[in-house]
Amino acid sequence: MPLTDLSKLPPLPIPLEQAKRIAAYRAVDENFDVKTHKVVGVGSGTTVVYVAERLGEYVDKNTNFVCIPTGFQSKQLIVSNKLQLGSIEQYPEVDIAFDGADEVDESLQLIKGGGACLFQEKLVSSSAKKFIIVADSRKKSPKYLGYNWKKGVPIEVVPSSYVRVLADLQNKLQCKSASVREGGSAKAGPVVTDNSNFIIDADFGEIADPRKLHQDIKLLVGVVETGLFIDNAEKAYFGNSDGTVQIQQL
Ligand SMILES: O=C(CO)[C@H](O)[C@H](O)COP(=O)(O)O
Known about the structure:
It catalyses: aldehydo-D-ribose 5-phosphate = D-ribulose 5-phosphate. By secondary structure, the chain is α/β, with parallel strands linked by helices. It is built from six helices and 14 strands. It has a seven-stranded mixed β-sheet, with helices on both faces. Strands 9-10-8-11 form a four-stranded antiparallel β-sheet. Strands 5-6-12 form a three-stranded antiparallel β-sheet, with helices on one face. Strand 1, helix 2 and strand 2 form a beta-alpha-beta unit.
């Protein structure tokens, strides 16, 4: 079946969703090569929903690409769009990966982990030859990370270490504030990740040197991974609700 013509997409009731969809569809169409890309990473979040939807349109009897999830939600997206599901253990080399972001700076450094999937997202994206970001235009930072995303850097930690990591973030790395992410009305107590860990959100204000901050956090005992994605993405697609897309690349 031919791909849906982008100019003939049925309108969505929410403008922000239109922005996400156009960014995702354009990113897939302009970067995914169905002939050569056999292993495709599918990230997590609300924008990637449209990546999976568009990839689903490429499936026919002549295609044989496998999709690698970055967590439970991502696995569901792959299955529900009738894409072939694989694992990073089976396919440690990924041809291309698509994912959302919480903030993207001028150098394509990222904050991710707003959806608590950062470890598997980093495992898959850093195993990919090409990593493409899909987002609505609110995610584009005017300068430094931390300008738009005020919730802090997500950090996945081993549960038993959370008290120690909170103290180290404040005493050794002078973060402004840090707390374990709570499930809110959806769950009493902390959010538990797909890897059975906790997430700490640590506010460092605007981050002038995300590489150094990532390295410093990573050295703390108990830290599994940080939501700072350094030198990983090669292109970002930022959608607007009027159907335009801004592309940022190095
Ligand atoms: O990092 C993530 C999940 O851990 C998401 O990619 C990020 O939060 C962006 O999500 P959305 O597309 O819903 O804005």
